[in-house]
Design goal:
2 domains; alpha+beta; about 160 residues
Amino acid sequence: MKLNEIKIAVDNWDNAYKHNFNMANREIVHWENCSYYVIKRPKLIPYYYEIVYKPNMNSVGLTHKDGHTLNGKKSQFYICKGIECTHEMLDVMERFEKRFKPRNFNETIELVKKETGIKIFNRVTELMNDLEWEKDRMSSSGQETLDKYWKLLDQFRKGKL
């Protein structure tokens, strides 16, 4: 299949899916075998297509960064129709959408604190502990800044940030 043919088939399926049309005989694009589905990435950049491997939901872009070179040979892409393919594709879409479910701002902040922020914050605290040994050699403004850091750390620990 050519890139344009793949995109048209995926767009047709995606439009039917979004508008709850009858899905029974929609064309579904596969790559290499029935475990790989070509989908349009939900709620992100328009026209961003992915090849998704159903067993573990890993994905790769349909094309290279140039937007024209397929990740795979044209002959490896094919169309499947039928109710069984449709049920499988609906499952893939549901799982993929959950994976990219948008978070609200507070959830995002919590995620950052948990996954990366805490590690960085702990490392900074270690460095600040080392700096505390030099406090008596610091200027008064340097000492004030160090004191502000410790107050900020206390607020963080008490959950007031």
